[in-house]
Amino acid sequence: MKSDADLRRDVERKLESDHHFDARDIGVAVKEGVVTLSGQLHSHIGCWAAQEAAQSVAGVAALVNEIKVKLTADGVHGDTEVAETALHALSETMATPAADITLSVHDGWLTLTGEVAFYHEKQAAERVVRNVQGVKGVANDISVKAP
Hints:
This protein is an alpha/beta fold. It has 2 domains: about 5-70, Histidine-containing Protein, Chain: A, CATH 3.30.1340.30; about 75-145, Histidine-containing Protein, Chain: A (2-Layer Sandwich), CATH 3.30.1340. It is about 35% helix and about 30% strand. It is built from 4 helices and 7 strands. The strands form 2 sheets. Strands 4, 5, 6 and 7 form a 4-stranded mixed beta sheet that branches. The longest helix has 15 residues, at about 80-95. The chain starts with a helix and ends with a strand.
């Protein structure tokens, strides 16, 4: 088992190698294998990328993401704009007809519903909308049709 100091070093190195955010804006603390990320970033995409990067490091038993997202004035998007952009992104990038997937947005939190043929389509839909500017989080309630 890695020491907390070794695990912290490994997480910091992993964060430094990611281009979605500036790793200097993120603090890393480790106690008994539990990694806590803190700091402030300017996008939710960067926040999720930092979390995924840290979770991918071997030895991380649990992760606490305390990173705050502070959007600039031009980064603020209303729910209507988020919904329109997410629908457009789904229709442009998904092989599954966008008509099979519906979404709702409340205060930047997006919920996907509908039905797809394959699990990878469910995952792809979430990846697509998660990268829409203004999305704070995604609840993926898409079901997969039984074979």
